[in-house]
Amino acid sequence: MFQSVDAYNYYFYFIIVQAVILSVLAIPLWFRLFYVKVEQGVALIKNDMSPEPKVYFSGAFIYPVINMKELMKVSLITVTIDRKGCDGLICRDNIRTDITLVFYLKVNESSEAVLMVAKSLGSQRASDKPTVNDLFNAKFSEAMKTVAIKFEFVGLMENIETFRDRIIEVVGDDLNGYDLEDVAVDYLEQTPISKLEPDNVLDAEGIRKVTELTAMT
Questions:
Q1: Which of 22, 70, 72, 185 is most buried, judged by most C-beta within 10 A?
Q2: What is the pLDDT of residue 1?
Q3: CA–CA distance from 159 to each of 112, 137, 162, 188 (Å)?
């Protein structure tokens, strides 16, 4: 009887040990099969049975049939606004300015922002440059015009950093889930007189002002 009990205990412990070994061996396989790891600058959107999708920035378990996944880039993307010739910005003294500004954007790394962008644009189009440009071009262009008109041309050339900072202030924080990381003034020069329209009242005044300034030098 004691022998049968010992054999039973041995068999029981043997099963436990085997189960533990199998569990340890199964963990890496489990991760390999179902864990989706995302690289830096990418958000993982996991759709499951809950009303609201969940967002992860490192990785998550994705199970077939039960879950669906979407990937969204949340790395920097640039929007370039180029205003030259007759489209150049008008300064306070009516001198027109050729300018190129580069706006650096990224999706805010929060669940709320990622889901907002996913719903409005779709996860694949969130980092598509033409799509993002269409979304913000009008807003950024209006900010540039609003700020430029407060500077005379010479003052604008001498205070580029202030000009840049004012644009960031005017753009603000309401960017549909995106963050404005930085703005760079890539090009800034007086619009050549040959590119202006003398019949345009503002351009005519600008031409007069440029002529006066050059005559003084």
A1: 72
A2: 46
A3: 37, 24, 5, 12
Measured distance CA(46)–CA(62) in Å, rounded = 7
Chain-centroid distance, C-alpha 195: 34
Mean pLDDT of 27-56: 83
Residue 38's Cβ-count burial label (10 Å; 0-12, 13-18, 19+) is middle
What phi and psi, each to the nearest 5 degrees, are found at residue 59? Answer: 165, 170
Ranges of beta strands (E only) in 65-139 are 68-73, 77-83, 89-90, 96-107
Is the model's pTM score more than 0.85?
no
CA distances from 112 to 21, 56, 131 (A): 42, 12, 20
The whole-angstrom separation of Cα 169 and Cα 144 is: 11
